[in-house]
Amino acid sequence: MPRIIPTDRHTLDEVAQAVVMGERGLGHELDRIADDMARLMLNRLAASGAPGFHRVAREQWYAPRHWQAISARYSADMLKAILSRVDKYLAAFAQKAKDA
Hints:
Helix content: 55-70%
Shape: globular
Mean pLDDT: 86
Largest sheet: none
Structural class: mainly alpha
Low-confidence stretches: none
């Protein structure tokens, strides 16, 4: 279980933005959370052309073990909160790409 569990909106947003944009530098624990979330959303990141896809591009697109390991590492509430924030950032990224 990670020592840092993001619960406030600002930290969730930082992690979500790191997933979509492929950023690093949030610290070891938050970077690991962002990597795990990117693994779960690999296909969505690839489909939208988000830079975060390259963060985990070496992973297999279908790996049930990822989901099992990640769901054991984090609570369901935390997964739901982060993934919903990532969805919002991904939608905003896709809209910006469409408008450009």
